[in-house]
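Weekly sync, protein design subgroup
Attendees: M.S., D.O., the rotation student, P.L. (late)

Item 1: inverse folding check
M.S. brought a backbone from last month's batch and wanted to see whether the design step gives back something sensible before we order anything. D.O. pointed out we never logged the input encoding, so this time it goes straight into the notes. Structure tokens as presented (424 positions):
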């Protein structure tokens, strides 16, 4: 801690880091696109070379997490593999290939006074992100913040401490090779709530906070932050299987939306089956889920159609399981499906499976979640899959961004006005 001067409180290490990040952000805001892309491409190559070291660090994290009794869902999120690291490196290259948003002109008009008025994209400044057992977020968040001209302060969970430390070292080494300030990224190693509380009060130096984690973390950030906050909240995602659904398609979408990554926020947590197709589809889904090791918690109508399912409790609807568990309900029609989603959803992701264009149009119009899909899995609500290169999170807040947050969502817009001597 920096010693206090008379009349001034001592500066904490986290505040010193935020001050350095603010200074770094001013440098990043002026970088040309080629410099940013070169660093990201270099970093992608570094991750490929450092894969063995990253796997060793992650194995240490995984061992500590299992010893501490961490929930299986979090352990799955914590794991790194050769495939996931290759995907991480590809995400960095994809971010490098995307258009640079900084300086993009979104309006260019001449107003009656003769002034030329332009609106251009600009960085937010310093972005703080708080997340739990997801080491890949460290690289994704840095890449998106860096390309959009922002410095970042990342506070990952203690579960991923070793993995995050190696990633941070790789990023700092890349910054040093390119002559850029290392304070472009700060990875906060101290996991204490006291440090987090201090961080959340640094509104003089930090422009945005993005919490990404469980309900307890979100509630803590909401209570203590004096900085504007965008929430990456629960992913209570629904798939509605309409009367006009292709049943084979419905099966593929539902099973993979649950099993491909059950701990992901975009995994399907509840299936709503139209009553007209329920007698055929519910038993087929129940059998497929049983074969995949998924526990189905069904309402009374669905359970009657497939007694091998487990009867659902009221709290199973509107719940993020993050595991091989899915809720199942029979609904009378599209109106009932929409009403269920409005009551139990989290504004994250919903999908409809139907061959009826009118039903699809109504669903996408009446369900206002951050991403609504037609005849596709909820798992596609993902920055990489939607062409953003990566994402810093999926916002369930409607201000200032909604859905996957890529480069554009990490910018603001400002005005540049050119005149010829006008006065008012």
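Designed sequence read out in the meeting:
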């Amino acid at each position: 801690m920096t010693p206090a001067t008379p009349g001034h409180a001592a500066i904490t290490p986290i505040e010193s880091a935020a001050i350095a990040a603010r200074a770094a952000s001013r440098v990043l805001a002026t970088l040309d696109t080629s410099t940013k892309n070169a660093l990201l491409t270099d970093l992608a190559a570094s991750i490929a070379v450092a894969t063995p070291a990253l796997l060793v660090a992650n194995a240490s994290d995984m061992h500590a997490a299992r010893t501490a009794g961490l929930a299986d869902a979090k352990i799955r999120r914590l794991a790194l593999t050769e495939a996931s690291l290759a995907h991480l490196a590809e995400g960095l290259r994809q971010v490098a290939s995307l258009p640079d948003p900084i300086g993009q002109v979104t309006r260019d008009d001449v107003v009656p006074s003769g002034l030329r008025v332009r609106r251009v994209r600009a960085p937010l400044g310093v972005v703080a992100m708080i997340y739990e057992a997801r080491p890949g977020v460290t690289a994704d968040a840095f890449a998106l913040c860096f390309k959009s001209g922002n410095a970042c302060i990342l506070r990952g969970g203690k579960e991923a401490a070793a993995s995050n430390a190696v990633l941070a070292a790789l990023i700092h080494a890349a910054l040093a090779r390119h002559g850029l300030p290392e304070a472009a990224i700060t990875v906060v190693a101290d996991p204490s709530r006291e440090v987090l509380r201090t961080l959340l009060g640094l509104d003089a130096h930090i422009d945005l906070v993005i919490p990404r984690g469980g309900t307890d973390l979100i509630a803590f950030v909401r209570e203590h932050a004096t900085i504007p906050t965008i929430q990456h909240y629960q992913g209570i995602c629904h798939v509605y299987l309409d009367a006009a659904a292709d049943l084979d398609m419905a099966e593929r979408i539902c099973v993979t939306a649950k099993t491909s990554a059950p701990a992901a926020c975009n995994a399907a947590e509840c299936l709503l089956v139209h009553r007209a197709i329920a007698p055929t589809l519910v038993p087929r889904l129940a059998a497929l889920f049983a074969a995949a090791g998924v526990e189905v918690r069904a309402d009374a109508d669905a359970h009657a159609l497939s007694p091998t399912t487990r009867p659902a409790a009221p709290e199973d609807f509107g719940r993020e399981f993050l595991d091989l568990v899915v809720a199942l309900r029979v609904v009378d029609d599209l109106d009932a499906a929409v009403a269920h989603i409005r009551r139990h959803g989290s504004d994250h992701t919903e999908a409809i499976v139907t061959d009826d264009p009118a039903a699809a149009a109504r669903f996408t119009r009446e369900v206002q979640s951050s991403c609504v899909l037609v005849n596709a899995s909820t798992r596609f609500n993902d920055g990489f899959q939607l062409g953003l290169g990566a994402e810093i999170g999926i916002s369930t807040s409607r201000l200032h961004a909604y859905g996957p947050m890529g480069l554009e969502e990490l910018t603001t817009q400002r005005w540049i006005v050119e005149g010829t001597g006008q006065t008012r």
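Discussion: The chain has 14 helices and 16 strands. The two ends are 51 Å apart (CA to CA).
Action: P.L. to compare against the previous round before Friday.
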